[in-house]
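Fold it.
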Amino acid sequence: MKILNKNILTLFLLVSSIVSVSAQGYEYGNKPITVKVMVINFNPFIPQKENKRLNEALNWNNPKELAEEYINNVREVSGGYINYKIVDWLDEDLFPVKEDGFVYTPESFLECWNNRETCHQPDGSDYAKIIDDYDIIEKIDNNEIDELWIFGAPFMGFWESAMAGPGAFYINGGVYEKIKTSKAFAIMGFSYERGVAEMLHDLCHRTEATMEHFYGGWEVDKLTTNWARFAANFAQSSGIAAVGTCHWPPNAAKDYDYNNPREVESSANDWLNYPDLIGKKSIISCETWGGPDYHRNYLKWWFSHLPKAAGINEDGHLNNWWEYVFNFNSYSEDGEKLK
């Protein structure tokens, strides 16, 4: 047997390593997705506050910093699968128009913020007008953008997540099927008064609603589907705990119970092996995801367990659930790939 030249051997090992990584990537996940985003930041100047932007006038967060952290968090928890790319960012010196035509002024908004009884009702913004005013239909149809993000403040009337276009379905907000785009698209509503935890929370509810849509329903106390079994929590699922829901961690005793030290036996870690579940369980508590921001850390932990393997499950659904959340136009209501 001939001995390979050292340089040739090194090259051989390098190529073998590349092939191995590529094969593994193909086997366990599809190619990473780039999600092109347009951001409209409704952030008017406030003359009563030294003419600062609203977020600065009320000492709220910087929306660009929130967006960057959120993008990085989603890329991290999806294992590099979801890669947001902001292709257009508009800082608007105005308040959005409500569905009934009402528009806050800086003065009336500050009055609302200081006295909630003066806030306008109905609260909802006119999404159809936003889509029309900013040529969103053209941008979607030309594949310039895949999603629309709207940043704003409380009482601007934004849904946490909505969907527009033909075939649009409920993702925890308005459904605007009459918008005449070539495909459905998601609209995320973010608040610069809140933080990245709440942005992840919005995406979590979008994920729950999407999975409920593709699995044809969801009852947290009836573990009849893989999605329901994934979302099981001890309090609501007859003592069976898996990864939990947006509001109910596996060990929760109430809504938003992210820092509960109670220990329960959970199959959460087994879901990292999906679809090859073996029934292994381990003890979890709030320290499993850790503090001090238990809310944000729990949601990152939750998303890191969301299945992302390649292939079709025995139940007829994808093993990669991120595909449903972001490539929903490619699948029928029962979760099958459209031809």
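The CA atoms of residues 51 and 236 lie 49 Å apart.
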